[in-house]
Design goal:
By secondary structure, the protein is mostly helical. It has one domain: Glycosyltransferase (Alpha/alpha barrel). The chain has 21 helices and 4 strands. Helix 3 runs antiparallel to helix 4. The longest helix is centred in the middle third of the chain and has 18 residues. It is globular. This is Protein farnesyltransferase subunit beta. It catalyses: L-cysteinyl-[protein] + (2E,6E)-farnesyl diphosphate = S-(2E,6E)-farnesyl-L-cysteinyl-[protein] + diphosphate. GO terms for molecular function: protein farnesyltransferase activity; zinc ion binding. One of its GO terms (cellular component) is protein farnesyltransferase complex.
């Protein structure tokens, strides 16, 4: 946080958090980095039991009655990250059947049964079904109706509504493109119809701010969640050329707290465990973008609307050198991830923040920050941040997470299986026959 001498509610909350961290981290004073690394432990069994409780008691989630597919996603994805099965009393088909009840006959999913379709729970439901995998889960999505719903949400040349008559922001761009990607459906028509690339990046009015991060919509403050949504949407759409990448990277690296090690969502705000993913996952995506662009430029290949100026400022352009990238060396999955020789954020500090300050080692679950209660949202995104940290560090921090696709936040193996399933001739023939009927 930038200290300007002015006392505010936020600055006092920051000071209180730092005082709390003194007691939480005092045992590590004088320890070597290796000692700290080896002493940290992810209490998997406690977290699994906490997540199992959420599945067993899912019918009692009344306060989040419009976000029930999200609860399914947060819990199932967390269990998948921990390589844990469902509890004996709950079968995956129970979740599949519930999500079927949330699917609208006009396409897409609502926040609960008989609710209007909305792009956010549509992404959450699809991610859950992809994570569960198998014939029952994957065949339950009405892809043709869903595509029709997404196209209806396109606000011509101005991104997408989240629902009929709803708000327009970067979340709509991401949830639409990510859902179509998981379902192995053509994204080009939606990209063109909505004009989302110009809405997010360069154009007369766009969501990228003077700070470098992205706001929810043009004129908004740069925010970690919206920045992830905007960048990931453009990565999936192959349109990162519309972004000022150096500016975005500059903003992202300055969101890691110097004292806490976690990430804040906005400038001069407190860190929050969930931004371990929303901000932490930006770096593998940015690394991928920059390495691919440099490789194409080095080969003299044509990159639409991209030049070295995209990768550096005009002053830096004359002396810029390509970044060094190497394979992650992972043995799981078929994809190699670009991992920098020198990570763009402090992965060890982030891991210390999450495991020492955000983890409830007794009751299970992870939280926003010390002094707050655990919940399934923060559990999911703290674990997702740890997984991104493990992958981005090239395996230097090993908490035994499976490989995760940073642009979707589902297991890479599950995503590959879903894309293969939806691309199979049998599924295409079946859907073609249903359309003719």
């Amino acid at each position: 946080m930038i200290e300007d001498g002015q006392r505010t509610e936020t600055s006092e909350a920051q000071h209180a958090l730092e005082q709390r961290l003194i007691s939480l981290l005092k045992d590590y004073q004088g320890s070597t980095a290796d000692d700290v690394e080896s002493s940290l432990e992810l209490t998997r069994a406690r977290h699994i039991e906490y997540l199992h409780e959420g599945l067993r008691e899912r019918q009692h989630h009344i306060a989040l009655g419009c976000s029930r597919p999200w609860l399914c996603y947060w819990i199932t994805h967390s269990l998948a990250l921990l390589r844990a099965p469902f509890p004996p009393s709950v079968e995956p088909i129970d979740v599949v059947n519930f999500l079927r009840a949330c699917q609208s006959p006009t396409g897409g999913f609502g926040g609960g049964p008989m609710q209007l379709p909305h792009l956010a729970p549509t992404y959450a439901a699809t991610s859950t079904l992809v994570t569960l995998g198998g014939q029952d889960a994957l065949s339950s999505v009405d892809r043709a109706a869903l595509l029709g719903f997404v196209k209806r949400m396109c606000k011509v040349r101005y991104a997408l509504n989240m629902h009929a008559g709803g708000e327009v922001d970067c979340r709509g761009c991401y949830t639409a493109v990510a859902t179509l990607h998981m379902l192995n459906m053509d994204k080009a028509a939606v990209l063109q119809l909505s004009g989302m690339a110009e809405f997010i990046g360069r154009g007369g009015v766009h969501a990228q701010t003077y700070e470098g991060g992205l706001g929810g919509e043009p004129g908004n403050e740069a925010h970690g969640g919206y920045t992830y949504c905007g960048l990931a949407a453009l990565v999936l759409a192959d349109r990162v050329d519309v972004l000022n990448l150096p500016s975005l990277l500059h903003w992202a690296v300055h969101r890691q707290g110097l004292v806490e090690g976690g990430f804040m969502g906005r400038t001069n705000k407190l860190v929050d465990g969930c931004y371990s993913f929303w901000q932490g996952a930006l770096f593998p995506l940015l690394q991928q973008c920059i390495c691919v662009m440099w490789a194409l430029l080095a080969e003299g290949s044509a990159v639409p609307q991209v030049s070295a100026a995209v990768l550096c400022t005009e002053e830096e352009n004359a002396v810029a050198e390509p970044p060094t990238c190497s394979s992650s060396g992972t043995t799981e999955g078929s994809r190699a991830t670009n991992v920098p020789d020198r990570p763009l954020f402090n992965t060890a500090a982030l891991r210390l923040w999450l495991l020492q300050c955000c983890q409830n080692r007794r009751g299970g679950g992870l939280r926003d920050k010390p002094g707050t209660a655990v919940d399934y949202y923060h559990t999911c995104y703290c674990l997702s941040g740890l997984a991104a940290c493990q992958e981005y560090s090239g395996g230097r921090h090993t908490d035994d997470f499976p490989l995760v696709d940073p642009s979707i936040n589902v297991l890479t193996s599950k995503l590959d299986a879903a894309i293969a399933y939806y691309g199979s001739s049998a599924v295409c023939e079946l859907e073609s026959g249903m359309d003719q009927e």
